[in-house]
Amino acid sequence: MYPSRVLGGLLVALALTITTGAAKAADPVKSMLVILTSPETETQAMALVLANQAARAGTPVNLLLCGPAGDIALRTPPDAAGKVVTPKGMTVLSLLGGLKAKGGKVDVCAIYLPNRKLGAEALADGIGIAKPPVIAAEMTAPGTRLATF
Q1: Which of 100, 104, 123, 143 has the fewest Cβ atoms within 10 Å of its own Cβ atom?
Q2: Angle formed by the axes of helices 41-56 and 92-101, nearest 10°
Q3: Could you give the strand order of the β-sheet that contains 105-108, starting from the edge strand earlier in sequence?
Q4: What is the CATH number of the domain that holds 129?
């Protein structure tokens, strides 16, 4: 009798997990939060291509740049950000500009500037500084899709 109770409990837990997962998958997409930390140009470009596609489809996109990826938000970005990425001949900077033009919100992590001893004036136009409570609320909001690169 004991093994059947354990098995029954496991089946109930599995059913609840599947049902909960299905409900979450059915939540309508209200926004997309992209967290980009990679220093690699190709990874940055792909993240931005996907963010641009989502924005083009009408999904509000918030891009959070942390760590080395935050460098692309500077008034003087690294040379690699202007390097052409094939096959479409785009650059990280052109993709970032395209996202902003589509209404995408772009912020650096709250700790990015202080850890580099920089102020807000070091950021390119249209780039903000994220507020952790706002990002945390967005991360946990129903309908937010999270993508990390």
Answers
A1: 143
A2: 20
A3: 127-129, 105-108, 61-65, 31-36, 144-148
A4: 3.40.1260.10
